[in-house]
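To: structure desk
From: M.T.
Subject: fold request, one chain
Message: Could you run this one when you get a chance? Sequence is below, nothing fancy, just the single chain.
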Amino acid sequence: MRPLMLALGATPLVGVPALIGLGPVLLLAQVSCGIEKHDFLRQLRQYIPADDYVMVGNILGVSGASDDRGAAERAGWRFIQEREFANGVR
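Reply: Done. Structure tokens follow.
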């Protein structure tokens, strides 16, 4: 199985070529359907089998206005800040 990496929003598109080289699944999503982000992540984990679940996103008040790190923690996903991802952290 491969890891599932989730990038909510448009900014992480710069990471797509690096992901293609590594082979994990990348899911880009704009979520504005009234569901909490951590609930969306839990549903993905429930219905999409993977070895690892990684969210690429923001840290509230540090790198953006959304609490992607908190959502990842509440959903049991590993988190990578967008800037770290752009610098090669996987």
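Reply (cont.): The helical segments are 16-22, 37-47, 68-75, 82-86. Let me know if you need anything else for the meeting.
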